[in-house]
Amino acid sequence: MKAAASIAGLCLLLAGTVHSQHRSSGEFGPNPELGAPEEKWLPTLHIATAKGWGAYGAPQGAPGTVVTAVARGLKHPRWLYVLPNGDILVAESDAPARPDDGKGLKGWIGEVVMKRAGSGAKLSANQITLLRDVQGDGARVERHIFLQGLNSPIGMALVGGNFYVADSDALLRFPYKPGDTEIRAQSMQVAVLPGGTINHHWTKSLIAGADGQKLYVGVGSNSNAAENGLAAESERASVWEINPGSGEHRIYASGLRNPVGLAWEPQTGALWVAVNERDEMGDHLPPDYMTGLHAGAFYGWPFSYYGQHIDARVKPQNSDLVAKAIAPDYALGAHTASLGLCWSGGSTLPEPFRQGMFVGQHGSWNRKTHSGYKVIFVPFADGKPSGAPIDVLTGFLSAKDEALGRPVGVAMDKRGALLVADDVGDVVWRVSALNGALR
């Protein structure tokens, strides 16, 4: 135990004692500045200890907005989905059992990171909760257990009368009727998803195609940078395209270390993804990113990052794949843990939050100065990012370097407000226009 404490102390020492949040403009945008990788015997470990908001605390919204709590006291809310009638579904989920993901020094460090971040300390709730704003003014929000007995669920999608859930190891289907507040029917397995005893990036995001004929699932890697061997990465670090009728799938795009948030950009029809990039290469390298996906494209992981910048830690290399690696469209800052992603369709928020992508940045651990711990907005024009990111929701860090909350999933509600799942605060937040907060 003393040895473990000494290692933790050394990791923290390597991180330094800086408690500020840092944003380097060179880490954002279509052409980020990429310096040289740093090599360290132990990774920098500097994570804001999870504290929570208390009974009345709340983050700060951008000028012209107001922030309200849709629901407090949830059980690690990670992801959101809004049904056509306006009901809000919340996936209350934490990591599944992964006995082989915590082995060795790096595995132990990973467990320390999770617990300090407010994850992994309790068993996953393994349920989806339905929130119904009865009067449409936020004054009375009903709470129902919509689905339970799941296995670390994240992704949700409704296609006709079929409700789909992406568990940590399977895509499931349930019958749904408009207005249902609970599903008791047994699930039907549509497809097996990569799981197993490592399942390092366990979250499986989900989005339906415009016509409902295909479903798309984000499947994260089984490691940071292939240290568990390439065999353990089979069909991982990719976005799957699944036929919900047959369960057959193909790899839609690959080389994406941890593709989480998925969103359709309406002008071009492109599927966009938020990707959580690799760690242990230095404070400013490499940036997380979002990108419009090209069918069949390869984006570098594990052999290279941000296009064809080789990660020398990965052996053996694959020069043929590196030569095909596509650089992403937009950098979102190093170690920001950019996970949530949604298009601003129907937004009633003030300008400039009308045309673009909202990004939930869960927050860094492998950096001396904190990054992320906020929700940002990236404006779009002509189907592409068109400017610098703008803060939408901040104040998740206290003056004492504690995480009062950590944003994850984001979604637009039926009134054009932004919903944010906060898995440390155990809250779903609504960010709405100041003059139309109850609209």
Task: Summarize the topology.
Elements: H1 2-15, E1 28-29, E2 49-50, E3 60-61, E4 65-71, E5 77-82, E6 88-92, H2 104-116, E7 127-133, E8 141-147, E9 155-159, E10 162-166, E11 170-175, E12 188-192, E13 204-208, E14 215-219, E15 238-242, E16 249-254, E17 259-265, E18 270-275, E19 287-292, E20 304-305, E21 309-310, H3 319-324, E22 330-334, E23 338-343, E24 356-361, E25 374-381, E26 384-385, E27 390-394, E28 402-403, E29 407-412, E30 418-422, E31 427-433
Parallel strand pairs: 2-28
Antiparallel strand pairs: 1-22, 3-27, 4-31, 5-6, 6-7, 7-8, 9-10, 10-11, 11-12, 13-14, 14-15, 15-16, 17-18, 18-19, 19-22, 20-21, 23-24, 24-25, 25-26, 25-27, 29-30, 30-31
Describe the structure.
This protein has helices at about 1-15, 105-115, 320-325, and strands at about 30, 50, 60, 65-70, 75-80, 90, 125-135, 140-145, 155-160, 160-165, 170-175, 190, 205-210, 215-220, 240, 250-255, 260-265, 270-275, 285-290, 305, 310, 330-335, 340-345, 355-360, 375-380, 385, 390-395, 400-405, 405-410, 420, 425-435. The longest helix has 14 residues, at about 1-15. The chain has three helices and 31 strands. Strands 3, 23, 24, 25, 26 and 27 form a six-stranded antiparallel β-sheet that branches. A five-stranded antiparallel β-sheet has the order 1-22-19-18-17, with no helix packed on it. A four-stranded antiparallel β-sheet has the order 4-31-30-29, with no helix packed on it. A hairpin with a 2-residue loop joins strand 9 and strand 10 (about 160-165). The radius of gyration is 20 Å and the shape is globular. The model is unreliable at about 1-20 (pLDDT under 50). It has about 450 residues and is mostly beta strands. It starts with a helix and ends in a 6-residue tail after the last strand. It has one domain: Neuraminidase, CATH 2.120.10.
